[in-house]
Structure formats: structure tokens, C-alpha cells
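pls ignore typos typing on phone
SN-glycerol-3-phosphate + seq
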Amino acid sequence: MKFFADTADIADIKDLASTGLLDGVTTNPSLIAKAGGNFLEVVAEICGVVEGPVSAEVTALDAPTMIEEGRKLAKIAKNIAVKVPLTWDGLKACKQLSSEGTMVNVTLCFSANQALLAAKAGATFISPFIGRLDDINLDGLELIEEIRVIYDNYAFETEILAASIRTANHVKEVALIGADVATVPPAVLRTLANHPLTDKGLEQFLADWKKTGQKIL
Ligand code: G3P
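k done
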């Protein structure tokens, strides 16, 4: 499963990219507002740090303007994935932009039928928001399961990009289901390597190693 960072914070992105484990980045208008700065410049900077797909979202509501915005965003760098909302206009824009060879991430997906439409529209990524479904007492993980079955039934190449991930457990669960990508807030990504028994075990190993009086270097 690929890991994308769900942030527009360049310091966080640089830090996570330095691990060599970051496969891409997703932004949205809320994350851009949170990070501050000029949208086009921030996205260009992120594209310079990360080789994989960097999602940048259109803000128009009608397909012709979405397409125009998408073409402008796609010119920023080769690794831009234009993000469009899962509306009929967004699907039209997805179909057009993907036919031009642009990667498209269809976002704000909350149902399996929406995901089916996005795949038919040639989406590179579908972004089901699991946390926001959980927030209203529905089952975000069940949606990922349903989309996995539908995409496998028809061999759709659209990648399932599990979004609105809030916890380390969400990451594990979407990996078990077989999501292609998880986009994860930096704070959650950083918790994935942590385990108290790792810390305890390391402390013991180092204490015992000290007793030997040896050094490797
Ligand atoms: O990638 C979409 C994500 O940013 C939404 O997350 O936590 O705002 O629902 P959240």
C-alpha cells in the first residue's frame, strides 16, 4: 500500500519525504488554507519535494471551468493529480482531463455507486472519506470493502485512495482490505512506527550492549 501525506505543510512533507517512505501528497482547499501561502506556489514546491502524485483540487463547480482550472494545475508539474469533486460536473471534468493524459483524483466519495462512476470516468484515484462516514455513525471501512469488490469485479484500474484517515487503526484496516493508497495526516503517519515494547526492548538491548564495552564503529 502506498502512503500519501494528507497535508500542504511543506516542512512536514520534507520531513516525511526524507524517510524514503512517502509515495505522494494530497491537498485540499482546507489544507491549503491551514498551511497558508499562494496555492499555485505551494503546490509547485511540494511537487519539487515529492516524486509521486501530488493532488491539487479545482474550486469551480461547473465542468468547463473545472477543466480549465485542471489544465492550469496540470501544467505546474508532471506529478500533479488534479482533484475534482464527485459531482456530475466533476465526473465530466474527470473524463475529459483523464483523456488528455492528466492524473485525476475524484474526491469527496461517500458511496460505492459514486466510486463506480469515478472509475467509469477514468479516474486515476478515488478518494472515499472514511473518517467523515464514521463521524455520522456510518462505516467508512465498509465502503472501502465495497469499492474493492466492485473494482476487482470489473478489473478497474482506478486506485482506491483511502482518505479522511484519523487513526493508526484506520491505516491497518484499509491495508487489510486492500486499499491501494492511504492518505494520512503527518501526525498519524508518525505514530505508525511506535510501540512501547519496541522502546522497552531497545532500552534493554542498549543497556546490555554497554556492559560489553564494545563499539561497532
Ligand atoms: O484527504 C481528505 C482528508 O483531508 C479529509 O480528512 O479529517 O478532514 O475528514 P478529514
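The beta strands are 2-6, 24-26, 54-57, 80-85, 103-109, 125-128, 159-162, 181-184. The mean pLDDT is 98. more later
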